[in-house]
Amino acid sequence: MTDIIDLSLVETDLDALADVTGKVAVLITEEGGLDPAGRRVNRLTRGALARLGESSGFSDMKTGTVKTLALPAGLTAEEVLVAKLGKAASIEDARKVGAALAKAKGKEALTLCLGSHRRAAEVVEGVLLRDYAYRAQRTGDAASVPRGAVQVMVTKPDALDSAVADLRAVASGVFLTRDLINAPANVLTTESFAEQMTALGDLGVQVEVLEEAELERLGMRLLLSVGQGSESPSKVVVMRWEGGEGAPLALVGKGVVFDTGGISLKPAGGMEDMTMDMGGAGVVAGVMHAIAARKAKANVVGLIGLVENMPSGRATRPGDVVASMKGDTVEIINTDAEGRLVLADVLWYTQDRFEPRAIVDLATLTGAIIVALGHENAGVFSNDDAFVDTFLSAARAEGEGAWRMPLGPGYAKLLDSRVADVANVGGRWGGSVTAAEFLHRFIKDETPWIHLDIAGTASTKSETAFAPKGATGWGVRSLDRLIRDMLET
Ligand code: BES
Ligand code: MN
Ligand code: ZN
Q1: CB neighbours of 47 closer than 8 A, spacing ≥ 6?
Q2: How far apart are CA 284 and CA 78, in angstroms?
């Protein structure tokens, strides 16, 4: 797994600033104000930072941009990085500044001067999240790009210790999710995915892997019908974190390690992107890692359905009718609408076995959600207003885009089948909503449930504020926050 950056908290040492190696970062307010470290660097550079504050371009300098003073006279450091962050900065602005500094830091070591800034923890969070690169498939020099350590100078390191420990736990969960999503499908098979989950046992997560014979015995025919064209065996991984009391929160993830579409084969253009179709399962894995690493006082179960959707002589045909674990029969009109089949059985099993207090499922479920919301927001569907409001607040606090979408019987009706209890697709319109209504059918009435369609947010072709191109880790922080807000207060 990609490690989080080596980061230490130390007490501000103004005398040391002249001699640090690598880069030095200081904050400047909108008014050009400097903290003691900034004033020290300003003196050493004979007023360079004060001149920056008075320069014509300064007021246009946006939060999240960094000015660089290269090879500054008066310091041994090779660069001084200056980021604008006011005393009253928002949490998200502070994170963005941290992320921008991590990007500007590159391979070098960084001394980050935060003094007594009230958003110091969030700046650190931004640094941790942005210092990520997926290198696992490269060789030679490209495989082991050095990553200089970060030394954070603050007035009271002890006061930040426990907050930063939690941020590290969550960032390492985010990195696990990104690594899983970025991994190609010949590397991350159902088998190797399950093995990686077993390793979460080291953190105290109880992990079970249900194999095909067991899934057959349980009646998970829908899930098995998706994987039956593949050489890789289908699996369900059950992860339990028992840190609290009472019925658990359940997280359920779609883990299609590759989605060719099956017999309803996808076109060649862009099919390689379907290596990220296990994104929902990747987020569940990342959250389990995060809460175990920070020893959350909460009961959470994470279940992922691992399958590969391939065409072959044994693959499911369009028109096949398959029975779900619940008992409902499903007419599989389109074998490319496979995620909902996997989730239906895992959702049912989750409720049957754990009687959870609430369920969140995550899936790269529909292209239609990208048409609707682009890459800025995940689609949020729910049968419970209070539960979904708690989630939406958590997502807002973490700066992860999430937008509620409707459900309703009119959409569910579109799934009527000529031959079976339900069809797996509902026609051209409202594709994300009919997909959500399909899942809704497999939720027992009283259980508060949220479905997150992350097809647009799990991975992006351009970099975001907090991640380079590729997997974002969207959802890990919102769900970690939901667990804190709902179960740990
Ligand atoms: N994995 C795809 C959805 C997807 C599309 C994820 C683009 C990420 C990016 C899903 O299994 C799928 O193929 N959905 C179909 C459903 C259709 C057949 C009803 C789709 O969205 O086209
Ligand atoms: Mn598909
Ligand atoms: Zn899919």
Answers
A1: none
A2: 41
Indicate which atom in ligand 1 lies nearest the CA of residue 264.
18
Q: Is the CB of residue 263 below 6 angstroms from any atom belonging to ligand 1?
A: no
pLDDT at position 144 is 82
Q: Helices in 309-377 by DSSP H: which ranges?
A: 339-354, 368-373
Give the whole-angstrom CA distance, residue 249 versus residue 284: 12
Q: Is residue 25 scored above 90 in pLDDT?
A: yes
Cβ 386 vs Cβ 275: under 8 Å: no
| DSSP label of 19 | G
pLDDT value, residue 216: 98
Question: What is the CA(367)–ligand 3 centre distance, in A?
Answer: 9
Please give the pLDDT value at position 445: 86
- The pLDDT, as a whole number, for residue 145 is 82
CA of 364 to the centre of ligand 3 (A): 6
Ligand 3 center from residue 183 Cα (angstroms):
16
pLDDT of 254-298, one tens digit each? 999 999 999 999 999 999 999 999 999 999 999 999 999 999 999
Q: How far apart are the first and last CA of the chain?
A: 31
Whether ligand 1 lies within 6 angstroms of the CB of 279 is answered as: no
**Amino acid symbol at 78:** E
Nearest protein CA to atom 5 of ligand 1, as residue = 367
Q: Which of 246, 173, 226 lies closest to 398, judged by CA?
A: 173
pLDDT at 143 over 90: no
Q: Closest Cα to residue 293, out of 171, 126, 114? A: 171
Q: Which ligand is nearest to the CA of 261?
A: 2
Give the separation between CA 198 and CA 145, rounded to whole angstroms: 29
In short, whether 151's Cβ falls inside 6 Å of ligand 1 is no
Task: Give residues whose Cβ lies within 5 Å of ion ligand 3.
Answer: 256, 259, 277, 339
Measure the CA–CA gap between 372 and 378, rounded to whole angstroms.
Answer: 10
Band of pLDDT at residue 489, cut at 50, 70 and 90: confident
Measured from the CB, is residue 339 less than 6 Å from ligand 1? yes
Confidence at 412, pLDDT banded by 50, 70, 90: very high
Residue 64 in this model has a pLDDT that exceeds 90: no
